[in-house]
Protein 1
Amino acid sequence: MSDIAAKLPLHSLNPFMPGAGKQPPELVGRTHDLELMDRMLARTKLGLVDRGIIYSGLRGMGKTVLLLKFNAMSIAQGMATVQIEANGDAAAEYDELFHELSLAIMRFRKPGVRQGLADAFSRVESISLDFVLGSAKVELGDSDARDTARDDAVRASSYRFELLVESLAEELKNAGSGLLVFVDEFQDMSPEVMTTLITVQHKMGQRNMPFYIIGAGLPNLPGTLTKARSYAERLFEYRRIGRLDDAAVADGFQKPARDLGYSFDDAALSRLVGLANGYPYFIQAYGKAAWDASDSNPIALEAVEKGEPVAREELDEGLYVSRWQRATPLGREYLAAMASFGDSCSSAQVAERMGRAASDLSAIRLSLIELGLVYSPERGRISFTVPGMDEFIRRVTPSESQSYDGR
Ligand SMILES: Nc1ncnc2c1ncn2[C@@H]1O[C@H](COP(=O)(O)OP(=O)(O)O)[C@@H](O)[C@H]1O
Ligand SMILES: [Mg+2]
């Protein structure tokens, strides 16, 4: 234990970090992924090109923190990187991409290369694209013309993005570097931007240029990408990010404690491993609560048990309540019908349970998908995006009434 740590009360040293995108004290079970990234970066420096990588998995599995970690590794290895979160609005997504690209250029460490990149950026920005767009003159109040102008603007951004990536990748390649674009919540991306990103990845790969998309999203992401461009299947390395094994989970509790001169005793640890059930988010929630409830070293089973209700509340708040509240009353009825079958079922089963025709429910089903509460793992099936959401819903809707509104 460091001198500083020794002087602080146990409580204030709590290393656990529940919360979306919060970097955990110990990133467990990801050795292979980190090696994959290391290798890709090493190869890029040698001018060798790889495929992009797509991660898919449920919420709370650690996709966002993995992307953030990769991003930091890439920067440390002298790459130019951009990290964005898709939101479904093409214009906004391009704005973010260009904004982040310009920041990546300004942050680039080698001044000579940085100047080359900045010049490429200005060059692409100054190109007039009128001749490829055949743009309609916008007359105010004419909504068709406004739509055309919007489409033109999005198309212009697509051209600009492609030109920009080409120029930047060339400059970077000469400098033994590369451009990595990290895209979180990729399944939500507008079709326009998704198609452009896939196309650009394809072309850059063919030309041996160091440009990689590293994406993360829900389990339906691989299917969504393939639907946008069928060759997306061959373009990326697809990796599922699922539950951690017990040894990794145990490390997830024990290592952060050990780093501070503490530990969990055997009974405490085995109870924690059971509670976490392989879910990274749960490690942080139960670890934090047990730590706060403990006044001994090693931390004992008693503290874990005392912390359990606190952790469950933390999980409710962090993962379930806000999502449940986002749904409309009919949406909640749909979710409750789903939950009665577990974490996944068929749309037909939901309709039957609700006593309605499946076609009557397609709009509400779609709105729940758009809210990110559920996704369709395959045609005709529907699943929760968050582990344990079904259990939460059964708990808050004990009777036939679905009147729960959070508190
Ligand atoms: N490999 C891991 N080991 C331990 N904790 C993790 C790991 N990955 C994620 N976490 C924790 O799980 C929570 C959710 O991570 P996040 O990246 O937001 O998940 P996702 O993006 O898949 O929804 C965070 O509190 C994070 O600290
Ligand atoms: Mg995330």
Note: Confidence is low (pLDDT under 50) at residues 400-407.
Protein 2
Amino acid sequence: SAYLKISDGCNLRCAFCSIPSFKGDMRSKAMGAILGEARELVEAGVQEIILVAQHLTDYGRDLKLKDGLATLLDEICQVVPQDRWVRLMYAYPQSITPGVMRAIADHPQICRYLDMPLQHAHPATLRRMRRPPDTERTAALIRELRTAVPDIALRTTFIVGFPGETREEYAALLEFLDTMEFDRAGFFRYSQEPGTPAATLEGQVSERVKQRRWDEAMAIQQEIALRRSRRWVGRSLRVLVEGSGTADDGAPLIAGRSYRDAPEIDGLVWARGSAPAGTFVDVRVERATPYDLWGTLVAEAVSAVSRQRSTLSGQPGLAFDAVAASHLLS
Ligand code: SF4
């Protein structure tokens, strides 16, 4: 995997965040430069390109591009073949456009995965955080995303113990968590960042309360993540192999990531079988835990993938058939 930064800085001013104070406002990289870098990564054999930015979904605003990220995704998918992955990191909910949803749904190389830090779910907390307080709108957007992009894996992060967070506000966060059922959710205990407006807010929450809320939210999310993971039992998933080893009984075992798993953040897919690191295989999922999935490598799918690779350069039609054939196995 390789990270490709598409912009730097952020135009927003969340009360807890110091990034804009040292990065400044968002500056988008020129689209031609991004496409050039993507082309080099493809030629170097990189299987997964992770487009990253503090505020990815605002891409191109400073370049006066209309629906900049959607346009960039369409262009990048002309450069990245359909048997590689493009992953998007750090979407801001209010700037996810129908065009972006359409691009994720249309292009097979774009992982059906969105990391969308929401930080909280109670309007009053969000207002103190200086973030859009309209939780209903966020909920509607999530429903829309799930309709437009079936099986999309949604990751988010929340802050617990933000200054002034009352029991009611915290309860609203838990309720939102329960209703929206994110595939992945991370929680941070609020910590005072010097120089940020939130650091001097009244009503700082004690460490003991922050810890209790964090423990509880984590436990609730574990159950939700398990329910979401169990939906994959009995189905097949394309997996990018990261390493291999042996199971307790000495049988060969691979570990890799599906489209649902960003590197070093999410879980792994473990499967009986062997395949070299850096290749794509299909795994039939047999067991789920909150973070990881376990299964068996589907041998036919592996050969479909290698057939697909060997045909990609010269005969795109055949390559497409191979992709379709491997999907039929799932
Ligand atoms: S939290 Fe994210 S969106 Fe908010 S100011 Fe920081 S970088 Fe920008």
Note: The longest helix spans residues 207-230.
